[in-house]
Amino acid sequence: MRILITGGAGFVGTALARHFRGGGHDVVILDNLRRRGSERNVAQLAALGITFAHGDVRNPADLEALDGRFDALIEASAEPSVQAGIGGSPRYVLDTNLVGAMNCLEFARSRCGGLVFLSSSRVYSIDPLVKLPLTQMPTRLDLQGPAGVAGASAAGIAEQFPVDTQRSFYGASKLAAELLCQEYAAHAGLPVVINRCGVIAGPGQFGKTDQGVFTLWVARHHFGRPLKYTGFGGKGLQVRDLLHPEDLCALVDAQLQSLGKVSGRTFNVGGGREGAVSLQEFTALCREATGREAPISEEAATNSVDIPWYVTDNGSVTSSLGWSPRNRPQKIVADIAAWVRANEGDLSSLIV
Question: E strands within the chain?
Answer without folding.
Answer: 2-6, 26-31, 51-54, 72-75, 115-120, 135-136, 141-142, 152-153, 156-157, 192-197, 199-200, 227-230, 239-243, 266-269, 276-278, 296-299, 309-310
